Amino acid sequence: MEYVCTWCGERSPVTTRRARCECGGLWELDAPPPPFTPEGVDRGEWSIFRYRRYMAIEDDSWRRVTLGEGMTPVIGLDEGVLLKMDYYMPTLSFKDRGAAALIAHCVSIGVDRVMQDSSGNAGNSVAAYCARAGIRCEILVPEGTSPHKIAMIRAHGAVCTVVPGDRDHCADVCRRRVEDEGAFYANHVYNPFFYEGTKTYVYEVFEQLGRIPSTVLVPVGNGTLLLGVLRALEHLLASGAIDSMPRVLAVQSENCDPLWRAARQGAEAPVPVAPAPTLAEGIAIGRPMRGTEILALARRHGVRFIHAPEGDILRARARLAERGIYCEHTTAANYAAFLREREVHGVGGDCLIPMCGAGLKSDH
Fold it and tell me: Domain Tryptophan synthase beta chain-like PALP: where (predicted)?
């Protein structure tokens, strides 16, 4: 198992502490999984690590880290709509999938201090798993981050530093400090071990339903869930577990949509945007660092980027709450985007929508 640079192809052992290649490219993992079969699932393990045969897991360090993340139910909302209840996680967010895998890697290579930038959910997840593993942790968040998320990060014993400015500026500040201070950059965008965790979203759905729904809707800011979903779908397809790729809808806020614009223009890289205020703070990423990779995968698999209408987010949130689903605003944006898509273009078959974060985290 090695890292490979996405720009120059340089190889590096996964024990490196470098956040990225010297040329500036991000790391990918060269760790092809064996063909997926139901027999390869460890049915005695009740966490994402039941799929560890298909993840880049180096040793048993995950046993020190797991909080029982994963195995969230799929429920029906109404005809043709399935919800994957990923806010039923230890830190009330789907980011626990990736954080568990990433911090298991940190334990495996002996990391004792990490830093990360986040809009809240990923930072809270990393803080929780670092607390579980005994790793010192500092999370940098942009101003305007939910006070509930900040309180949760600090409750786990992590330092939470609020950085003036937007989400992209917060990332720039964090990366400078990582370079100056020598901490391990436990970032959910840079480090490919995070995607080894988000792949399990698809493996779970396939195990639970015995199939993949005809449409899979995924929110996209930095693309941590979308990248995991597409790689896992590719794996199932190559393994013969599914016959074809589902239709994939990638949701961006209409107030911050660099990938949506790039897809419309046929561009190979994200179109620079200045994020405008949006309720969907979790996907308000003006400069997605893996944007070129996301767009290439989107072209390969016919992924369509759609907008979450800003004015519809609160109505969608209220509509879900009336059905017993109390989610955060960014999660409600997924449902708002689906409702608009169904109204304008129609959505045949069934559609899987992730409930990514719990509502109490964004009541501010």
Answer: 65-357
Distance of CA 1 to the CA centre of its chain: 22
Neighbour count for residue 109 (Cβ, 10 Å)? 15
Q: Is 72 exposed, middle or buried (0-12, 13-18, 19+ CB in 10 A)?
A: buried
Helix (H, G, I), strand (E, B) or coil at 273: coil
Contact 327, 358 (CB under 8 A): yes
Q: Is 191 exposed, middle or buried (0-12, 13-18, 19+ CB in 10 A)?
A: buried
Q: Quick one: tokens of 184?
A: 């391990």
What letter represents residue 49's amino acid?
A: F
Sheet containing strand 81-84, strands side by side: 74-78, 81-84, 351-354, 215-219, 247-253, 304-308
Same domain, 262 and 342: yes
β-bridge pairing 351-354 and 304-308? unpaired
| Backbone φ and ψ of 55, nearest 5° | -115, 160
Range of the domain at 11: 2-65
For 40-54, give the DSSP string.
GS-TT--SGGGGGGG
d(CA 215, CA 322): 24
Whole-model pTM? Answer: 0.96
- List the beta bridge partners of residue 351: 81, 215
**Domains in the chain, number:** 3
pLDDT digits (tens, 9 = 90+) for 160-207: 999 999 888 999 999 999 999 999 999 999 999 999 999 999 999 999
Q: How far is CA 121 from CA 136, 264, 278, 308, 329, in A?
A: 18, 29, 16, 19, 12
Query: Whole-angstrom Cα distance, residue 15 to residue 61?
Result: 14
Is 54 found in the same domain as 170?
no
Residue in this structure with the two tokens 């949006």, named with its chain if needed: 278
Structure tokens at 278: 């949006």
> At 315, which CATH number?
3.40.50.1100
Q: Which residues of 8-42 are buried (b: 16+ CB within 10 A; e: fewer)?
A: eeeeeebeeeebbbeeeebbbbebebeebeeebbe
Q: Which helix (H) or strand (E) is 30 found in, with range?
A: strand 27-30
